[in-house]
Predict the 3D structure of the following.
Amino acid sequence: MRYLFTLAARSAWNRRLTLGMTLIAIALSVTLLLGVERIRHDAREGFAQSVSGTDLIVGARTSPVQLMLYAVFRIGEATNNIRWQTYQAVAGNPAVAWAIPLSLGDSHHGFAVLGTSPSYFDHFHYGQSQPLVFASGKRFEGLFDAVLGAEVAEHLGYRLGDKIVLSHGMGDVGLAEHADKPFVVTGILARTGTPVDRTVHVSLEAIQAIHLDWQGGAPIPGVSIPAQYVRKFDLSPKEITAMLVGLKSRAGVFKMQRYVNEYGAEPLLAVLPGVALSELWQVVGVAERTLLVVSTMVVAVGLCGLVAVILASLNERRRELAILRSVGARPSDVFLLLTTEGLVVTLLGALLGVVLLTVLTVFVGPIAQARYGLVIQPRFVSLDELQLLGAVVSVGLIASLMPGYRAYKLSLADGLTPRI
Amino acid sequence: MLNTPIIQIDNLLFRWSASHAPCLDLPHLEINAGERIFLHGPSGSGKSTLLGLLGGVLLPERGAIELLGTALTKIDSAARDRFRADHVGFLFQQFNLIPYLSVFDNVLLPCHFSMRRRARTTAGGKRLQDEAKRLLDHLDIEPALRDRPVTQLSVGQQQRVAAARALIGQPEIVIADEPTSSLDADRQKAFLDLLLKECGEVGTTLLFVSHDHRLASSFSREIALQSVNQAPLDAEAA
């Protein structure tokens, strides 16, 4: 019995080139399958972690998903802003405990610049109601103070006291710069694993100040207001992009939502983050399922290849099987020999797939985080992934029964003298 | 043991399926222990079928096959496989060796499927390797050849390694199916002499199947299959 496995191993080693290629195909397909699953899982996790304790997100009327995407995840852009008076009216509603204004539109080396109020550092929470913590420095106090998210500071190598110049608009290259009004880094936040890490925080007044001599997205020709004079202007904000609202009582959330949605002075939209998120997953779910189906197909292709390779080898091995029969192997031994081969290749393929995935996460993880804010941590396989692996190996086993059964039938028919 | 039948076949009928004509119809065949039988038959005379029946991988439609007093038709297939492993060494026409095993592992293969042959090989405290070496020595496989992949051996060398495999653990019966047909005339004779000598040393009964009459003189008895088989000649069931 034990010798059968030795035989299976030696025989497989003898055909290591073809089996090796099949093994790599299975490994790659498993990497793809687990990778899709892991990105799906981590993206959901990341999105769900990004905002906590906020009861409503309020912005100009648009789709709930779009509002949440730009307000929380800095994905896409707002089509309309909301007026500052509106912010004040909503924030002043007796049901509202706190409100955070969000003003977006500028960037720094591809990282979003967020104009907000100091209340942001008091009330914004992420994950399981975790507050923002400073890794070093403090909040912005002066007009041209900036607080960096952890990823911004790390990626661009900034430290406290460094001067940074903001760019107008989003993107990485070819943007007009607010070069005349540099900011000083006064604080760096601890890592959160959320879009906050990729954000440069400044005061609303600073956003106002750097756009004093701008109009329609470009500097007004011939007009330049030096940084030292901007304080003489009225820097109170005129417009913001969106706001986060926390209520005194969660029970009042629908009433407040209705109040905002029916607000008379301008068309507004209030969404519950959880509702908007599940709406987002419904949209994304189609793509996720498609990806999952495609990667499942790829695994199936890999396993088909395995069965084909083993079946193809079978004809050349009829002599070998007859010899084994002649020295006493039973047809069931022959069955076991062939099935073991398929199963072991599947197992090794799955294992190699996990190793590949881990290596990939180590290398691709930081890129995904820097580019898309997607945190993919290298970690051991999760329970869900283990189930997927189990399914792959089970299907591999079932698939391997086929060459096993074929060999069994062949060895019964051939006996000791295969007719080749 | 001498002159008691080691193989006895009575009233045997075999056909591949009910719609086929019988391909073996043997009223009686008896082979005694220690005999060296030259079984002669042209293609289609049912040689391969007879080997399958004696090996216990085929079952007759009716009749009895007894090896060493064990009726193969009365035990189940697993027991027949074990019986074959324990008591019968096989030697085929060509491609007798497992390509991915070493010379030694090919010779020792039966010892992994038969506890009995393993025990006989290691009797008296011998190591498996030593007995394999001894057989290879006797069969003129020089030490230099033993570390080569078996696929690099000549056909004659491969056949001698296969003979060592058939003989290891001293099975009572060795069945050789045209083992010399892929060798040239000189080597046929040399190979046959070695095989007969080894079988003689341990008293193994040899059933040597061939269509080549010239070899018959080296054997103690010749059986012409077409004269004992009453089924009509069928080229299909060669």
